[in-house]
Amino acid sequence: MDEINMEPIDWLVDKILPVGLSILGAPSKYYKSYMALGLCVAICQGAKFLGFDCTKHDCLYFDLESTKRRPKNRLDQIVGTGTKKPDNLHIITGDQSPGRIGEGFEEQVEYQLQKYPNIKLIVIDVFQLIRQPAKRNQTGYDRDYEDFRALKQIVDKHDIGVLLIHHTRKMKDPSDVFNELSGSTGMLGAQDCAWLISKKDRSDNEATLHITGRDLDNRDLKIEFDKKFFQWRYIGTEEEVEARRRETAYMQSPIRETIIKLVGQGSGHWEGRSEEIKNASKYLSQEIYEDVRNIGKFIREYSDLLQGIDGVNAIPGNTKTRKWKFNDTNATNNIDATNDTNATQMKLRYQG
User: Fold this and answer.
1) Cα–Cα distance for residue pair 201/148, rounded to 1 Å
2) Which residues, 6 or more positions from 336, have their beta carbon under 8 angstroms from its beta carbon?
3) What is the pLDDT of residue 41?
4) Under a CB-based contact definition with an 8 Å cutoff, are residues 154 and 109 in contact?
5) pLDDT at res. 184
6) Confidence of residue 57 (pLDDT cuts 50, 70, 90)
7) For the range 207-210, what are the long-range contacts, defined as Cβ-Cβ under 8 Å and sequence gap of 24 or more?
8) How far apart are CA 273 and CA 264, in angstroms?
9) Reading across the β-sheet that carries 312-315, which strands appear in turn?
10) SS3 letters for the chain?
11) ∠ at Cα 25 (23, 27), nearest 5°?
12) What is the phi/psi pair of residue 270, to 5°?
């Protein structure tokens, strides 16, 4: 059987954005336009975007909700006032009336690609403003299919990327976050790549950028919008961020501080009930105000960090005594090493 020769993926942003038809979805006021404009700047400069390498190309940005002033102000915020802007970033705003699909939009794209043949990414912000109104008796699926077919023809003809900025539904879908993209069930299926920004709470600075696509690995990147520099930045995977948050909670807890000091006073060993830990905190650290039951819960939840960071092993007592036993493993190892040394010396003396 002959092997199938697969063409290598042509990446605009390594590992997360290939050439093709893509979509970026988020609720309103989630700074998705800043993300799209920052993406264009990074590609135009051949820099990094969210820590991933970009291949340098020209970009065409349709900022259809703006006049010429807004994208200029946003570029000043992203790049810096007085800093030279990328001369290979071409911007068309809504007041230039680029038209809708089937009413001049395709011709406008063709004109721009002939004028600037190095364009490799076109951003359409927002997708809704180039769409035709639904025809009478036309289903949502048929409407989506018609629009995406027109855009795919542009992508395939010129071998470029087209990124659609799109809104998400207000209703969250716990089973699959990409189901929140506004539109028919064919919305996601038509894309070569999809990005979606989500937050646990609208007021959070942190968000998750969910990434999926035909020829790329699914990723969930934790990101944060830096309001000083007006840019999204990568802060780690969800697992990395949760691990940092968990370690911070552990290190700042008066329960941890009290246990460490009790073990230190006991020369590497202490045992007692949660009530005793709570009472000791009044004299050894910041006072523990939590319910006694939460102290046991804390010890069980953070036992790995107690041992991994502070070298203290926690052993729960039986249901009758309810006493915790804490041992400094470093002190125990030192005692064992000392005992081994003493035994060896005695053996040598005996043999002598």
Assistant:
1) 32
2) none
3) 97
4) yes
5) 67
6) very high
7) 207/30, 208/238, 209/50, 210/177, 210/178
8) 17
9) 269-272, 324-328, 312-315
10) CCCCCCCCCCEEECCCEECCEEEEEECCCCCHHHHHHHHHHHHHHCCEECCEEECCCEEEEEECCCCCHHHHHHHHHHHCCCCCCCCCEEEEEHHHCCCCCCCCHHHHHHHHHHHCCCEEEEEEECHHHHCCCCCCCCCHHHHHHHHHHHHHHHHHHHCCEEEEEEEECCCCCCCCHHHHECCCCHHHHCCCEEEEEECCCCCCCEEEEEEEECCCCCEEEEEEEECCCCEEEEEEEHHHHHHHHHHHHHHCCHHHHHHHHHHHHCCCEEEECHHHHHHHHHHHCCCCCCCHHHHHHHHHHCHHHHHHHHCEEEECCCCCCCCEEEEEHHHHHHHHHHHHHHHHHHHHHHHC
11) 165
12) -155, 145
Q: In this structure, what token pair is assigned to residue 300? A: 């069980």
Type of residue at 186: G
> What confidence tens digit (pLDDT) does each residue in 301-336 have?
999 999 999 999 999 988 777 899 999 988 655 444
Distance of CA 88 to the CA centre of its chain: 28
Q: Which residues of 97-120 are buried (b: 16+ CB within 10 A; e: fewer)?
A: ebebbeeebbebbeebbeeeeebb
Retrieve residue 189's tokens: 């299926």
What are the structure tokens assigned to 290, written together? 């939590």
User: Nearest-CA neighbor of 164 among 198, 119, 131?
Assistant: 131
* pLDDT for res 119: 98
